[in-house]
Amino acid sequence: MPHWLVIDLEATTEEGGWPLEEMEIIEIGATLVAADGHELDHFQRFVRPQRRPCLTQFCRALTHISQADVDSAAPLPQVWPTFERWLGKHRSRLAGWASWGDYDRKQLEQDWRRHGLNSLLAGAPHLNLKQRFAEARQLKRAVGLNTALQLAGLNFQGQQHRALEDARNTARLLPLVLPAHRQG
Description:
The chain is an alpha/beta fold. The chain is 39% helix and 20% strand. The chain has 8 helices and 5 strands, in the order βββαααβαβαααα. The chain has helices at 57-63, 67-71, 76-88, 103-115, 129-136, 145-151, 163-171, 174-183, and strands at residues 3-11, 25-34, 39-46, 94-99, 126-128. Strands 3-2-1-4-5 form a 5-stranded mixed sheet. α5 crosses α8 (174-183). It starts with a strand and ends with a helix. 33% of the residues are buried. Mean pLDDT is 94; it is low at 180-184.
């Protein structure tokens, strides 16, 4: 059975948001799941931002990530190879990777370029679950993760805006979207 990787990132930000180019990853959460959404393995790490090392009050309140969490973490060029080694163990069964929306994909691609990093994900298909969920449910527009869970009759489990919990909750919607993906 093929496996899917669902990734969620938390990044530096301020109220009102920053342009993608100014954001830096501060947490990586990933869950490897079977097509039925059952978790097989997971990965979580904090990442120390380089350009704006001090988290804003808004960012700390939103993510519940403390300054100490990122201060004690390694920067992305050191964290990413750890992720790649973890992912490498699952490479042969990986059907693709998914995220809620395109932000996570764009942030990763930007940071891979910025830091000269390679990734197994670069050659794997990416599934925008936010878009696919809207299509599968015939919604007029895409909705947020919490709303999608409610539409599916599910409640958010864990702390919102934490990478691994967001990835796990996103993965719970994967079985509702994959049949549409196979047909498309």
